[in-house]
Records
---
Amino acid sequence: MHSNRTKTAPLPRIYLVSSGVESAENGKLLLNQLTRLPRSLSCMVQIREKKLSAKELLTLALKAREIELHENTLLLMNERLDLALAASLDGVHLPENACSVKVLRPLAPKLIYGCSAHSLSAMRIAEEAGADYLLFGPVFDTPSKRVYGAPQGIEKLEAICQATSLPVFALGGITPKNAPLCMAKGAYGIAALSLFQDSFRFADTIEELYFNMNPSCP
Amino acid sequence: MMPHPPFFCFITDETLCPVSLAEHALKGGAGMIQLRHKQASGSQLFLWAVTIRKLCRQYRALCIINDRVDIAMASQADGVHLGQQDMPIEAARKLLGQDRIIGVSASSIKEAMQAEKDGANYIGFGHIFPTSSKEKEYAPLGPETLRQAAAHISLPIVAIGGISHENAASLIASGASAVAVISAVSRATDPTLAAHNLLCAIQKSHS
């Protein structure tokens, strides 16, 4: 691990990816989710809103940063290191076709750099570039699968996890029921979008996930 | 830091290879290249930025990256060009420091004055004439508005929108330090020659 943050505290095991449906004025869903996050639990949170302009994304990120969160909760920006820095976020999540960690880390060594890796070759590239964690998916069928392609299945997740020493988050169709299976196959944690979009059930879902994944985990 | 006026800026065409176009424009005498490609992936943009930045150094021109401050930092480009929907100037300045160039698009005198106040290094002002390169929601500003803008702000103004070697000289005469073009170079049968003709046109107006 290269990041200062990860040296002091292990990465949280639950990873929330923002819905991607935020409109310019509000960013309501994400801010609502962050407000409802149980303070006793830490979480990875990625702001991924492709429809927003850079200006709107920065406004949303600054609002998110103002919310009081668990000290180990990490706020990440999808792809844009400049916006992550401008909003004092904790890191950047890089899609497979983004600028490499190798290029970006020297600009801001203390940040956390995660990489999407949907194949063994992409996993190797991310590992060599110095990623702090990997996001792999889609493991199961999911409403947001259009974004990530067809499900890859639990065996492929296992193969990726066995081939790398980096923490791997399983993404795509994750539920509190199948999360333990992902962990059993070697995932470090789980990531989701749709699962977290019911704001009334949000806090319960997070707690259920934590309990199912490991009753004693932080 | 900024090229000596009058100069011209070539903005890369969304649908054509930015590197070869940039090289044509530089051979023809461009003082500034702006890499602008909204659809490209981050890794592609970075590779283009590094290559164009090297070409620009070779031709003693500036390399400016549209919108992506991160790509500008990573590629050690000379600066960024920010639209009104991009990162605010103050935030970009904190990341880039005082030595890098920040250009800002303005489509009114009010926006231009605000950008000057916020610390921009030049104003991209337009569109001056009707243009086919981008869908526009408002009417062309015309040379008279450019003249007024030049009277209100002291920053260099780069006029943009529907500019060719035929009308470029009049804009320098109206107070622009430079003109920016896309299609006048990218769609020309001989882009290097088109760039050269543009340079001749603005230099003639200046002498």
---
Amino acid sequence: MTAIADIPEAPRAARRPQIGNPVLRWLRTNLFSSIPNGILSVLLLAVLARGIFSFVQWGIANAVWLTPANDSSACHAVRGVGACWAIIPEKYRFILFGTYPFDEQWRPALAVLLFIALFYLSTRRALWRRELAYLWIAALALISMLMWGGIFGLSFVSQDRWGGLPVTLILATFGLAFGFPLGILVALGRRSKLPAIRSLSVLYVELIRGVPLVSLLFMASVMFPLFMPNGFNIDKLLRAQVAIILFAGAYLAEVIRGGLQAVPSGQYEAADALGLSYWRKNRLIVLPQAIRHVIPPLVNTFIAFFKDTSLVLIIGIFDLLTTAKTAIIDPAWQQFSVEVYIFVAGIYFVFCFAMSRYSRSLEATSER
Amino acid sequence: MTSDAPRPPPRRRFFGAFGRRELKGLFWQVLVVGIAVAVIAFLWSNTVTNLSARRITTGFAFLGREAGMPIADSLLAYNPRDSYLWAFVVGIANTLRVAVIGIVLATILGTLIGISRLSANWLVSRLAAVYVETLRDIPLLLQLLFWYVLMQALPAARAAFRPIEGVFLSNRGLILPAIPIGAPQLWVLGTAVLGLVVFYVIQRWLISQQMRDGKPRLAWPFALGLLVVLPAAVSVLLDVSWRIEWPELRGFNFVGGLTLAPEYFALLIALVTYTSAFIAEIVRSGIQSVPRGQWDAGNALGLRRSFMLRQIILPQALRVIVPPMTSQYLNLTKNSSLAVAIGYQDVVSIANTTLNQTGQAIEAIALIMAVFLTISLGISFFMNWYNSRIALVER
């Protein structure tokens, strides 16, 4: 490991004269600034080159990109030396949309596009107004209509046939849409002066945060029927969704509480002085400031939920990861799970990376 | 809760005269608590009815019954005829085994990568950044399944990889040479731990002496005596053997050495690499939070770089690093429950099997919650203690 040299650099008054080839100069300052650094760079370059070379050999040069439908013999021929990307065109419809009726799969595809549009619009600072909430309600209603159907000539598709990417997006987005108001209420409850409400909020947050999401999901899938009156039952997807909302509520409450604490007490006092009621004070004065403070951590929390929705695999709900895992059960393609996992990891990565970039740009602008 | 008074009324205790504000507050509390109690009572009565309909008796009596489930990989001795209670204990030991080792390894790896991100070497810092970005943006469960598939694709025991002599990597897992630890070895290790405690007390005393008269005192002779000479003497006196046991291939499997089963190994790698990406970011921001003036001041005093890092920069960076690190440790422990997806039998997996076998859903979930809440509280308690030790002491 090289010494930490990024921050502590003394102001470089006596720089080396800027002469010579700029490429060589860059190489010298960034890779070969000292002898140990030079040795390290050469070693790393060698390892990296080797790694990239073998990956290119496996993933591109020796890979099989397309095979005739349902025929994996070409892939079996290169097994161990080349990747079998042909499994992706073979299975992508199942991985992305699960068991949704094949001819109707344009509906979940459209739903995914709507989700992406919704996320994109939510990042526009100019749209951070009350209308954004209406936009969310409208978009989520439209997505539900597309997925379920049953009106406007769309055939009805029950939710046990949903699967793949739309399910992942639904679990994460609805978790946020319902968990957010819940989180606001609980955060306010935790800062309330009323002891009973405060302790109930603390109990809720600490209980949920203290246990793994897996056990909450188990609870939703196994114990929910026990909690309900005899004969009453709701769908498995909805139960998992409720567990994710409760989970999201507790974590979002802690983030929002951080924002509430950052609002100067003068703001509260000013609102009191104006004679505003508790709810008006929070709605008009405190919350708008508090939430603006915590938008970057909120985005980070959302990234975490987006990844955590994959845990529903454990209770057998067909999200993106479960469909991927199911797609490779097929005996002909069983050996090529690594390729499928890389494909799905790429999808998750694109969503999470975009969000984390956005969160970082927000932090950068708020620091200015 | 309107503030109708022109000036804030004096705060009254609960049994003071009730003003309008207090009455309103009381009303809200009664309402919320009433709703909570009603919901819980409703769920409870449904549960009792449902359980009696299924002829399941509530209570923890089932813990004494024979478990009958196999546990492939366990730290403690176990066979299927043992009780459910013992199966749970074995599960807890398995959870702790992956969590404790995972926390130690993730801290080391994360710190190295966090420091690498700040390296002056462009290649090192870029590689560290790519590592962090990639691992953070892919779900842990997906990474876990990926590692597990790779483990299963390893060659059979006969064709095992041998990266170093005595280390085998095959589809049976990772096999390492080990020193068998029995009662005599434990005596020696116990002496060393005792020596560490005594040394800690002596060192505090030495520092307090130095604080009084300003004369530095040497601590290392005590360390040498208590940590090396004393355990070595006990080892010689008791004639303890420290023979290394080398694993050997016999037939289709390995004999001797320490075996990390593929499930355990995959879980450990996934948890360590995933968490280390988050720890790296915490370490990086902690070091960056130390103002540059501190480095300049150290340079001006002519201090050596390593001394500066140890005595000036790290103590200040740790104040920023420790609180978020605590939540990463908690996350790693909670994430170890993903073991159920690949069949490593941690406490969640065993509770799940118990639940399927006995139908004691409430008890099983209550046990999971109790275990994780205890572990969480334990980690929080330790980290809060550590945090208060390193916190800024202000006059």
---
Amino acid sequence: MSNNKSSASGSFAEKINNLTDTNLLLTITIVVFFLMYIGAIIFQGGGFLKAQNFLNLFNSNAALIILACGLSLVMITGGIDISVGGVTALVSMCCAVYLDFKGGNVFVSVLIALAIGLAFGAFQGFLVAYLDIQPFIVTLAGMFFARGMTTIVNTKPFNVANEAFSKLKMTRVIIPGLGSTNRKGVYVDAYVEIGVVVALLVVIVMFCMLRWTKLGRSFYAVGGNQQSALMLGINVKRTRFLSHLLCGLLAGIGGYVYFLHVGSGSPSHATGAEMDAIASSIIGGTMLTGGVGNIVGTLFGVLSLGTIQNIVSSAGLDQAWWTGITRAVMLCLFLVVQSLVMARKKK
Amino acid sequence: MQKNEAKKSNENFFMNLVRQQMFIPILAVLLLAVFNLIADPSFFKITLGYNSAGNPVLSGFLITILDSGSELAILAIGMTLVTAASGGQDISVGAAVAIAGSVILRVLCGGNSRPEKLAAPIIVAFLVSCIVAMLFGAFNGVLVAYFKIQPMIATLILYTAGRSIAAWINNNELPVISDEKFTYFGEFIPGIPIPTPFFIAVACIIIIFLVLKFTNLGLYTQAVGINESSSRLNGLNPAFIKVMSFVVLGLCVAVVGLIKVSRVSTINYSVIAKDIEMDAILAVALGGNALSGGKFNMAASIVGAYVIQFLTTTLYKFNVQSDALPAYKAVVVIVLVVISAPTVRDWFSNLTKKLKVKEVA
């Protein structure tokens, strides 16, 4: 990723100066993630060395990866979307109610999830792009609407008892060669859930889209400078609309993956997921001011947050509030780093 | 001819009325009032009763609005300044209220979670929480002003960590204050049937109006919000004024924290002041203030805060669950921002112009 050609003989500082913003932030993220993981292995012992433990990082964060991808997209375009957590809760509740009460089939429930996501994305995108309303306010309202609707659909949390769904939920993809023997001496295969496959597909598609398609590049252009993007002949309004629409769609997909992971509907599902997703994007090097960002960084951002959670829980600290504090500290650090990078640019 | 003129002046009067910033909040109050009057007139009934301590207290939905709306009005004061100066909103106020409340309890209890008597006077505890809340406000302000981070993202940090910090201050315990005097701030002072938060809010409102009248705070804040670089060229220090507005909000947060913990004499870290940031932002928006900064109207924000509480109480009365409330409020927000969006206004004024042209033809 780094810029090797021009700085082969230069000093370290020169090398850093030659990196683009995107690559510099990405490098910082990846380095921080590996430092943290290695630190965890050293201080917390062998648990972190197991392949399954690493894969569980994906298993429990698959939905967050998808949500964070959507957010990165919107943030690259210069907007923000904080409704994704609410949409996730609404999607899982609606699908749960549909599958449980109506006994419907799984395929239709996927369609419901996508439709909810698209509806939120389209409405919010329309308000933001065509009526020029601040994205934060629109999506804040979207978040509260989704949370409220979740309660209106059903107040109490409940588990889904649908055979086809349970089958899908229990589907696991075995990864050969990474298994380990457990305490009883039985060999256990390493696995990932089906959601992880979806998440990785999303990451790959988004990465390619942002890197090589016209639409992807226009997201960066609009986020970097709307005025010059307009001069270049890019349809700014349409681009912003599409970014919110895609984010909504990804929120729908992420919501379904989340639902697949937990297998229940509850108004308190995915509380704070939007904040986690924003934090992952920021940690992954997406700039809030737009125009800078990378999906690979976002992936590492999510993994970093997951690692923090694992460290906190395996250190035996009181989870709920230590996780909050450590995440906030990390978010704060990365925000400051970003603002320093911005200052460097101006020089 | 004369008739036509009269009609025109009538129209002008109407247009002026509509343009007034107070128009939207007052219209909203009237609509809500009429709605309640039609649906169930008992909404307006106020009864004088006696509480468990034998003090005369007024009760009724209107009193509830005055009572709970006061917290919101106090927050709206600070939020209006922050909005005007920085062009963004502070979403950490709920978490900051939790911190302020937790600090008050910590000082009052002095480490013992069930104190027989208070470890420190209430005023000391309040002052300490003011300082802490102002420090947290300054933290937000510095991130916004010096590191140039969007206010909503900068305050996201405290939003994420705030309730954890609040729990950490009290070692995750839930201290309970048994001293009766402590309840005066959130409930009633013996002999006075009107809830105390209302008086606190009135005091805050008077102070802020005196400050706005006799100092340049209002002028400078608006100048920074309208154009940061030109205000700097005029000799202001925009960064300092932004930090200042966040510090003032911190002070408001400390006052609300006192009221909140005084109401229940204890604290619940995850529930206290939940979603209050949404209401505070909504109050500012409902007051017709531009959420992108610049000019503000403090009185309209305060009225806006009471209107929000009016709406909440009305919804509660119709047995809407507290978890479902946000959905209805979100609809109100969307309608408000759509009405006040410049694009929509332009479109609307174009439409009226066209209609007028047709009329003339």
